[in-house]
Amino acid sequence: MNISIVVTQEEHYKYSQEICETIESSALLRGTGIAKRTPAYIQKKMENNDAVIALIDDKFAGFCYIESWQHGKFVAHSGLIVHPDYRNLGLAKKIKSFVFDYSLKKYPDAKVFGITTGLAVMKINSDLGYKPVPFSELTTDPSFWAGCKTCTNFEILKSKDNKMCLCTGMLYDPKEKPKDPPKHPFNVRIWNRLKEIKQTLFLKK
After folding, report:
1. Does residue 37 sit in helix, strand or coil?
2. Distances (CA, A) of 184 to 107, 132, 181, 203
3. Distance (Å, rounded) from C-alpha 205 to C-alpha 199?
4. Could you give the CA distance from residue 135 to residue 127 in angstroms, rounded to a whole number?
5. Which GO MF terms does the UniProt record name (predicted)?
6. Where would I find the beta strands (DSSP E) of 85-137?
7. CB-side exposure of 116: number of CA atoms within 13 Å?
8. What pLDDT tens digit does each residue of the chain (205 aa) get?
């Protein structure tokens, strides 16, 4: 199996529609909230060299893109997805690690952050050196939070003045320490419990 992970070029624009459909169908299957993106938006990221794609024998296998906020003070990795045909191969971690290293080179002074409800993504982030933080440590750029409007949990975020939601905020500050394994390994049981507590608090009728 020939796996290649590369920064997107013009030849990859043709995958934009399939990428959007894969992201949306995956979110529906998991029952999680997700900010929807259009093929035009995905292609724009590709044009700006702010996206990476994984291909297996020239077939779309995975994707992730970079967003920058507050004049490059913060960057986030969004839309991380692996095609259903190529899951359980460790591809998500490979894509995330690739886009992480790439964004550190392209935006060397930026803090890297993300918000997610996915435990798999949390573990990958933790392995890369991210730490969980309150939303107050993330970007204050309103356009970032506006991107959550299509998420099914947006009303929760709105009711909490963008300070809390079902997502967990995670941050990597390159000025704090070099990229290395975290001192406290990711514990799935603990994060599952925290996720359940959030759901109980925010989704109770």
Report:
1. coil
2. 27, 12, 9, 30
3. 11
4. 20
5. acyltransferase activity, transferring groups other than amino-acyl groups
6. 111-116, 131-133
7. 26
8. 789 999 999 999 999 999 999 988 887 776 555 667 899 999 999 999 999 999 999 999 999 999 999 999 999 998 899 999 999 999 999 999 999 999 999 999 999 999 888 888 888 999 999 999 999 999 999 989 888 887 878 888 999 998 888 889 999 999 886 555 555 566 667 666 766 676 676 666 5
DSSP 141-160: -HHHHHTTTTSTTHHHHHHT
Task: Answer yes or no: are the C-beta atoms of 141 and 70 closer than 8 Å.
Answer: yes
**CA-based nearest residue to 169, from 107, 125, 108:** 125
Report yes or no: 196 and 154 within 8 Å, Cβ to Cβ. Answer: no
Residues 205 and 200: their CA atoms lie apart, in Å, by 9
Q: Could you identify the residue written with the tokens 């990958």?
A: 124
What whole-number distance in Å separates Cα of residue 185 and Cα of residue 177? 17
Question: Could you give phi then psi for residue 62, rounded to 5 degrees?
Answer: -170, 165
Q: How many residues does the chain have?
A: 205
Distance CA(149)–CA(204), nearest Å, equals 21
Assign 173 to helix, strand or coil.
Answer: coil
